[in-house]
Amino acid sequence: MNRFERRLAFTGALLSLAGLCACGGGGGSGPQAPALGLVYVDPPAGGYRFVRDAQGSTATHLVLDLVGPAGDRGRGVAFALDLAPGPVAWALVAPGDPQYARNLLFDLGPGLPLVKTAVQETMLLADLFQKGPGNDKALGAPICQIALDGAAPLAPAAQVPITVVQFRVLPPAGAALTEATSRCAVGTLSVQ
After folding, report:
1. How far apart are CA 160 and CA 108, in angstroms?
2. CA-CA 20 to 30 A from 161: which of 11, 49, 82, 127?
3. 3 state SS for the chain
4. What is the domain-level CATH number for residue 133?
């Protein structure tokens, strides 16, 4: 190999090394930040409570089931939940759902269903009632579902407070709602 060929080989090696350094060594784009997701810890058992639905929830879509205490019976529930402003907002349980709360328990009967929901700024309002007197249901099974979505791009938040503003139950008989706000709990929500 003459002097010209050695210099050409050396220059080629330098160019190859420079190419490897420019693209980060050829092994990827460096360390990636872990993907953020909604993390929900269920409240303790007892009373009415919103618990995570494992089947419907994803990293950025949290579905909560409202479950009542064993032994309670009723014909409907009404509640208002307030969500602190931040990286999470109320959402439909599934695309195309007509309401923000999905009935799982009550017999809504023919005609216009007695389910009404609304989102007013950070507050979710929901009324779910069975038609007609009698035919009450055991409230220890999942009653309804609600959902929250993380905003894109999802920002970390140590805690996203959800407050039970009001919770009422329509008892087996009568038309008056029973106040049960002190018996209803939500868990802790964070973005990690």
Report:
1. 33
2. 127
3. CCHHHHHHHHHHHHHHHHHHHHCHHHCCCCCCCCCCCEEEECCCCCCEEEEECCCCCCCCEEEEEEECCCCCEECEEEEEEEECCCCEEEECCCCCCCCCCEECCCCCCCCCCCEEEEEECCEEEEEEECCCCCCCEECCCEEEEEEEEECCCCCCECCCCEEEEEEEEECCCCCCCEECHHHEECCEEEEC
4. 2.60.40.680
CA distance 128 to 132: 13
Per-residue pLDDT reduced to its tens digit, 5-58: 443 343 444 334 344 334 444 455 555 556 799 999 999 999 999 999 999 999
- Residue 167 φ/ψ, nearest 5 degrees: -145, 125
This prediction has a pTM of 0.81
- For residue 30, being part of any structural domain is answered with no
Alpha-carbon distance of 121 to 90, in angstroms, equals: 10
| Under 8 Å between Cβ of 147 and 63 | yes
Span 120-142, pLDDT tens digits: 999 999 999 987 766 889 999 99
Domain count, the chain: 1
